[in-house]
Specification:
heterodimer, A: Rossmann fold, 2 domains, B: mainly alpha
């Protein structure tokens, strides 16, 4: 049987794909008003915000009114709400005994973990918001799927994939966090007929590197692979192109979070790199989640092509929904008019999503780890790296990058080639970030491995300020 | 819960199963898996309620 595109295989998706922008926004407004009316009666947190703003649900007669007048919330607001009304905060919005699943954010910000109470209905919706991008990527009922993200635990990223693969009817192997990389490869080879792999960007890199080190070309070891799906981290285009070549299939990416209750958008089946070698687009599932991309300083809407902060509103989640939540995520906004797609869904550039709050101010420059990733991993000889910013004894800020070469490069590069490579990496970092770094070569095993999101940078400057 | 309402539950679930089976014939591949998920949840509920039938017999 011929493989059908997502839109051929699903009349529901074909319908969504055919919505005009006006029709899409009308649907958003209907769902938004339903959400606000429910929260006005069932969530003291959101009711208080509506009262403060003088904006009752029936006054929200347009999306523009909502965006202009509904107050935003952020992580600090939610943490304060939880402290005052433990454990879920007054924003919960459903009866306490309707909470069937508790999810928390990862806590990597150091500020504290947001807590989310989800209903049985939400659990299906969280599953759907994982199944949807994967179906768009090519996953079909009965397919063999490998989930490399650690399953279970407290996070949405731990529970959503399992539910998503289950409700789509795929045959799922949740190998993340339970097997070593070599054991995963052994299992995948035993299965043979692997159709789909979901992993963090960093882990797909680790997995591919490990396969190649064992002399296995992924496209030959897994000839029926249909799609690779990544999330959570940035990467250079060159890396993505090599991944696609090694695996012999498209690489797709999703933008998701606990606040989105899964994925808020994906590259669908278009891939992370366009045919002319440019970065692809993550098309936003705006009929399930409303997105605004704004200037983080002024709150004004970002122009198409510019980087702004993602502000999100759940249209389809009832337990602990977010309404105009400032994520701190930095993304390049692309209007549906500029997306080159027939769809009316707005988009963000893939591979470059960063954080406003993990930006490091170094020697007066705004430096994002994702930008350094792009510079370093643009060199195929590099296997991984770790960076640190610190203060020297004489009070100067220094940046050190410990860099490990791939096994092949480590064995074959001459001293001169090594010198050229290091100079090229330093120049690439300088070009993208306007900073010079000190490079040190280390063995691969001297660097940490990450099962999910990589944390390659440490900022030790404050500990250097000692008298 | 009365015996009468237990029989009602069985009837409701049997009816839901028929309806779910009908949904599973959908041509929409995105929805089909979810319908099958629903169908099998109903089948599980019917099966775990067999204890009631054993008592009635």
């Amino acid at each position: 049987m011929t493989f059908q595109t997502p839109f051929e295989a699903s009349p529901l998706l074909a319908q969504v794909a055919g919505l005009s922008r006006t029709e899409l926004e009308k649907l958003q407004l209907t769902k938004l008003r339903r959400q606000l009316e429910r929260l006005y009666t069932q969530s003291p947190y959101y009711r208080a915000r509506m009262v403060t703003a003088g904006l009752k649900p029936d006054a929200v007669t347009s999306l523009d009114i909502f965006k202009a007048r509904f107050p935003t919330s952020n992580k600090a607001d939610f943490l304060a709400d939880q402290l005052e009304h433990p454990p879920f905060g007054a924003r919960l919005g459903i009866a306490r005994d309707q909470v069937a699943l508790v999810n928390m954010t990862g806590g990597t910000s150091g500020q504290g973990q947001e807590i989310y109470g989800r209903s049985q209905r939400d659990i299906h919706m969280q599953g759907y918001l994982h199944a949807l991008p994967w179906f768009l990527a090519g996953l079909r009922p009965g397919d063999m799927a490998i989930n490399c993200v650690p399953a279970g635990g407290m996070t949405t990223g731990g529970w959503g994939p399992g539910e998503g693969l289950r409700i789509i009817g795929a045959t799922a192997f949740h190998v993340g966090g339970t097997l070593s990389t070599d054991a995963k490869i052994d299992l995948m080879r035993k299965l043979g007929d692997v159709n789909f792999v979901y992993a963090s960007t960093n882990y797909l890199h680790t997995l591919t590197d490990a396969l190649l080190r064992r002399g296995l070309e992924p496209r030959e070891a897994f000839p029926n692979i249909r799609a690779l799906f990544i999330a959570a981290e940035g990467y250079p285009i060159e890396w993505a192109e090599k991944i696609e070549a090694h695996w012999g299939c498209g690489l797709q990416e999703g933008y998701g979070s606990t606040q989105c209750a899964g994925f808020g958008g994906s590259t669908c089946d278009s891939g992370v790199v366009t045919k002319d070698g440019k970065r692809g687009l993550i098309h936003l599932f705006e009929w399930e989640t409303m997105f605004e991309i704004v200037d983080p300083e002024t709150g004004d809407p970002t122009q198409s092509g510019e980087v702004g902060e993602m502000v999100i509103t759940n249209l389809s989640i009832e337990g602990s929904p977010v309404v105009r939540f400032r994520t701190g995520d930095a993304a390049r906004y692309v209007s549906h008019k500029d997306s080159g797609s027939a769809w009316s869904w707005n988009a963000i550039e893939c591979g470059t999503i960063g954080r406003f709050d993990d930006m490091m101010k170094i020697r007066g420059n705004n430096v994002w780890p994702s930008a350094i990733d792009a510079a370093v991993f643009g060199h195929a000889e590099v296997a991984d790296y770790a960076g640190r910013v610190f203060t020297t004894e004489d009070g100067k800020t220094e940046i050190e990058v410990r860099l490990a070469l791939s096994d092949n490069a480590a064995m074959t590069l001459s001293p001169e080639q090594r010198q050229n490579l290091f100079q090229s990496v330093r120049s690439a970092i300088k070009e993208r970030n306007n900073i010079w770094v000190k490079l040190i070569e280390v063995e691969r095993r001297a660097l940490p491995e990450f099962a999910y999101k990589a944390r390659r940078w440490t900022d030790e400057r404050q500990s250097g300020y000692r008298l | 819960m009365s015996e009468q309402s237990e029989r009602d539950d069985d009837a409701i679930l049997a009816n839901m199963l028929l309806e779910a089976e009908s949904l599973c014939r959908s041509k929409d591949a995105l929805l089909c898996g979810q319908y099958r998920h629903l169908q099998d949840r109903i089948r599980a509920l019917i099966e775990l309620r067999e204890c009631f039938q054993a008592k009635a017999e």
